[in-house]
Amino acid sequence: MRILLAGSKGQVGFELSRSLAVLGEVTAVDRHSCDLTNESALRKVVRDLQPEVIVNAAAYTAVDRAESEAELARLVNAQAPAILAEEAAAIGALLVHYSTDYVFDGAKPEAYTESDTPSPVSVYGATKLQGELAIAAATHRHLVLRTSWVLGAHGANFAKTMLRLATDRSALNVVADQQGTPTSAALLADATAHVVRRYQVEQAGQGAFPFGTYHLVASGHTNWCDYARFVIAEAQKLGQVFKAGPEAIKAITTAEYPTPAKRPANSRMSNRKFADSFGLRLPPWQDGVGHVLKQLF
User: Fold this and answer.
1) Burial category of 124 from C-beta neighbours within 10 Å (exposed 0-12, middle 13-18, buried 19 and up)
2) Cα-atom radius of gyration of the chain, to the nearest Å?
3) What is the pLDDT of residue 297?
4) Angle between helices 285-296 and 158-168 (to 10 degrees)
5) How far is CA 195 from CA 99, 119, 185, 264, 284, in A?
6) SS3 string of the chain?
7) pTM above the 0.85 mark?
8) What average pLDDT does range 219-242 have in this prediction?
9) 162-193 burial string, b = 16+ CB within 10 Å, else e?
10) End-to-end distance of the chain based on CA atoms, in angstroms?
11) Which burial class, exposed, middle or buried, applies to 26 when counting CB atoms under 10 A from its CB (0-12, 13-18, 19+)?
């Protein structure tokens, strides 16, 4: 099986390079070898390789900067997925694409399901939704996997930022009125490999593969402040010493920490559809965080 992996140097892409390698010949490209804003170059990569599966882990993820770089965010998050979907449709390939909890406005009190109507409140969320819609319009042979609060041992993320700040400062203020689910890049990559393998098997046997949109997140939920406290506490158990321990992390409101982009207050997403459709148990978010910390220390 020929697999094209876009965004191979990001948190998720790094883990996908590992997890997909056992399934076939993986051709990995990043922003240096394939400019996602260059339509002709992107189409050429697909046409030259003729992959059976395209996994798009590339994205513009600078949520606040997107407010002032809306066109660049659109090119990467909306136009590039549209092009990949069109090319996938032309050659009959499966397209796996990652989206975000930020396609929702956060007003729902319960966890979001795939049947809930998206209503993004930021440029980032809006461009990611545009990408989803473009994919669905171009090909039915797709998996759009919405995830949230991604972390990994490779790349930048909230957990690493908290570790650095707690080392340098004696106290931290962290927002506590935004809820979501930290999800490890390794979990995303391993789950993706599982579904691509199922696609591989079912296509060989002409089976009915469940294409569509899914919420792929770890189980459970938390808020940013409790997440930060958990990260520092777990790192302490691994022998790390900080100026600011968990007790020195103060809960504040979103209003006390204004940002250029608005965030949804509730980013919780139900993973039941994904778990039931693909026969997987999605572990608690704490497991993924603990695994990343053990890799770091």
Assistant:
1) buried
2) 19
3) 95
4) 60
5) 16, 28, 15, 29, 20
6) CEEEEECCCCHHHHHHHHHCCCCCEEEEECCCCCCCCCHHHHHHHHHHHCCCEEEECCCCCCCCHHHCCHHHHHHHHHHHHHHHHHHHHHHCCEEEEEEEHHHCCCCCCCCECCCCCCCCCCHHHHHHHHHHHHHHHHCCCEEEEEECCEECCCCCCHHHHHHHHHHHCCCEEEECCCEECCEEHHHHHHHHHHHHHHHHHHHHCCCCCCCEEEECCCECCEEHHHHHHHHHHHHHHCCCCCCCCHHHEEEECHHHCCCCCCCCCECCECCHHHHHHHCCCCCEHHHHHHHHHHHHC
7) yes
8) 98
9) bbebbeeeeebebbbbbbbbbbbbbbbbebbb
10) 36
11) buried
> Amino acid identity, residue 152?
G
Q: Which of 163, 147, 153 is nearest to 218 (CA)?
A: 147
Is residue 43 a contact partner of residue 84, using CB atoms and an 8 Å limit?
A: no
**Mean pLDDT throughout 61-65?**
96
Query: What CA–CA distances, in Å, run from 41 to 33, 45, 80, 84, 92?
Result: 10, 6, 11, 11, 20
* Per-residue pLDDT band at 208 (split at 50, 70, 90): confident
Which amino acid is located at 249 in the chain? I
Binning pLDDT at 50, 70 and 90, where does residue 203 land? Answer: confident
| pLDDT given at position 206 | 64
CA-closest candidate to residue 116, choices 266, 280, 291, 295:
266
Question: In sequence order, which residues have a C-beta less than 8 Å from that of residue 194 and are 6 or more positions away?
Answer: 278, 280
Catalytic residue positions, numbered: 124
CA 143/CA 141 separation, integer angstroms: 7
